[in-house]
Amino acid sequence: MNMASDPGNCRPDASAPIQRTDEHAVERHAAFLRRTSEGPVDLLFLGDSITRRWADVPELWEKYYGKYKAANFGVGSDTTHNMLWRIQNGELENISPRVLVLLIGTNNVPIHTGAEIAAAIRKIVDVSRAGLPRTKILLNAIFPRGPQKRPEGPSGPSPYYMDVVTEANREISKIHDGRTVFFLDCGKAFIGSDGEIAAACMPDQIHLVREGFIVWAESMRPLMEKMMND
C-alpha cells in the first residue's frame, strides 16, 4: 500500500488505487461488474455513499433518470483511492455511457489536503477518459461538509473541513475543459441563509436526504440534459 510522504504518518496515498475487502464493498463491486454485462448504460453515476443513497429515493431516481439507461455505481465510505481501484478493475469495461456523473472526495477530507484530493480526482478523470473515450464527464464539486464551525477542543480549534473542501474544489474546477469534462459546483444550493448547511437537505452535514437529492438533481439537470443530447 502506498502511503503519504509525511514521516510517521500512515495515511493512504489519495492517488493510489487501494482495494477494499469489506463485505459491502466486495458485494457492490461484484454487482457493478454484473451490471456492465447486462446491457447498455447511457448514464453512469460514480461515487461514494452520497451517490449510493439515490437508492433510498427510487421515485426521484425514476423521475429524473428513468428515461435513461442509468446505473448507480456508488459505494458507501469510498475514497478516491478506493474508486481508483474499482475503475481500474472492471467497472468501466463493456459500457460506453453518454455521460458519467462523478462525485467523490468527501471521505478523504478528514485525512488529506485539498491539493492531494484534487490530484486524486484528476487521476480518476484521466482513468475514466481513457476507459470511456466517448463519454462526457459531469464532474461535481465536493459538497459542503460539516462541522461548519471551529469548536475549541483539548488541542485548540477542531479541523474545519470546509477549508479542505474549498481548496480541493478550487483545484478540480481547473479540470473543466468544456468539451469532455464539465465542472459543476452546486454547493451553494445546500447552504441556508444563515451560512450553515441546510438541515432539510443534509441533516448530518454529509449525506443528502430527499430534499437534498431534489436540489442536486435540479442543479445538474440543465447541464446534464445538454450533455446527454449533444
Q: Can you walk through the features of this model?
A:
This protein has 230 residues and is of the alpha/beta class. The protein has a single domain (23-229), classed as SGNH hydrolase (Rossmann fold). It is 37% helix and 12% strand. It is built from 7 helices and 7 strands, in the order H-E-H-H-E-H-E-H-E-E-E-H-E-H. The longest helix is centred in the C-terminal third of the chain and has 20 residues, at 210-229. Mean pLDDT is 92; it is low at 1-8.
Short description:
The protein is an alpha/beta fold and 230 residues long. It has seven helices and seven strands, in the order αβααβαβαβββαβα. α4 packs parallel to α5 and α5 (114-131) packs across α6.
Q: How would you summarize the topology of this molecule?
A:
Layout: H1 23-36, E1 43-47, H2 49-52, H3 58-65, E2 70-74, H4 80-87, E3 99-103, H5 114-131, E4 136-140, E5 152-153, E6 156-157, H6 161-172, E7 181-184, H7 210-229
Parallel strand pairs: 1-2, 1-3, 3-4, 4-7
Antiparallel strand pairs: 5-6
Helix pairs in contact: 4-5, 5-6
